[in-house]
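New to this. Please check this record:
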Amino acid sequence: MFKFLVLFFTLFLQFELLANECAVSLPNSSTEMSSLSTSKCIIIKNINIQNTSFLADPSYQKNAAYNIEITTVNNATIFEQTILPSVFNNIVQLNTQHNTEIKLTLIPVTSNMEYSFHVIHDENTITGVTSIYVGLHSKKKVQ
């Protein structure tokens, strides 16, 4: 019985750790992350420390809001914003504080929704400009 409990707690901790890990994005890649209510994060590596732009679009279906937080690897906040369902935002030039790696956290706000985030990390190899784009598809959660 004791071995069973140790095995159970070991597996539980492994799944808990996996659930809290962030995805990793390298230049010229895209990542899809789905969630019902928990925040999702992605570590974006090899960005241009002097020229990184960021754009987050509202839900394609215009029915869900979400919060964005971008931090350095040392947890210093670079950018925060709430993305409303039908408001388009401007491109933001990020002050990366001389970091080549940042953490992007996406936090669902609207209840009873299924979120499917799409993050694109683009690097123009000629100019060196890094662009980060977040798109969202959302739909009502099936009860």
In short: The beta strands are 23-25, 29-35, 40-45, 52-59, 66-72, 77-83, 92-94, 101-108, 113-123, 130-140.
